[in-house]
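Lecture notes, continued. The same structure-token format from the folding unit now serves as the input rather than the output. Read the line below as a description of shape only.
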């Protein structure tokens, strides 16, 4: 991790329509936010809240069941405009920031929600999709789910899957594991077959 650089691990949960229905003009909206702010390897801030959707405020049964979330939760959440301000505040410090998510949907949905609400995108800084970093690092053919990835490391996810703050913490934990492995590989170059076999003896044998 770069010194005095903020790493902001963000996770959102979104609305979803019923499988059998097509809402006219439906688009996913953020209904829960969780983020973790890390500087110099220290967790300096974290935040969690439900968010009341603007366009489709009534949750589908599928959404409530899949996320284990109630209508009352989101009705009592912060507004989308308060969410935007919160993200702006945490990103307005006098330090460079890298925003880290698992997958690219979080930033896509945030951008679209800002566009629909006619508010500026609140986050500035480099954006890193850790799932793609993980895929490249391990040479996986397919993109791996967040909790499957942490289990592949022999670890457990933090809290409950599909709770925004727990998923943000889990993303941070995977980031630390991958960074540790990267440093190990940089400091320990893998041996080649030439390092393990004395070819001069081999050639003399057959000369």
């Amino acid at each position: 991790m770069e010194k005095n650089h903020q790493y902001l691990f963000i996770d959102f949960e979104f609305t979803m329509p019923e499988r059998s229905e097509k809402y006219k003009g439906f688009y996913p909206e953020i209904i829960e936010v969780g983020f973790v702010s890390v500087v110099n390897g220290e967790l300096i801030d974290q935040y969690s809240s439900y968010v009341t959707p603007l366009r489709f405020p009534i949750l589908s049964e599928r959404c409530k069941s899949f996320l284990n979330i109630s209508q009352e939760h989101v009705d009592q959440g912060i507004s989308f405009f308060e969410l935007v301000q919160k993200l702006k505040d945490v990103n307005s410090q006098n330090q460079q920031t890298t925003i880290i998510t698992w997958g690219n949907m979080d930033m896509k949905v945030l951008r679209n929600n800002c566009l629909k609400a006619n508010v500026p995108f609140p986050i500035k800084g480099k954006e890193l999709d850790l799932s793609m970093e993980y895929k490249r690092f391990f040479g996986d053919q397919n993109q791996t789910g967040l909790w499957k990835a942490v289990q592949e490391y022999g670890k457990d996810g933090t809290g409950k899957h599909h709770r925004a703050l727990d998923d943000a913490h889990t993303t941070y934990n995977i980031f630390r594991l991958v960074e540790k492995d990267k440093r190990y590989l940089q400091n320990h170059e893998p041996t080649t077959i030439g390092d393990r076999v004395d070819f001069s003896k081999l050639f003399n044998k057959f000369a």
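Point for the exam: Confidence is low (pLDDT under 50) at residues 191-203.
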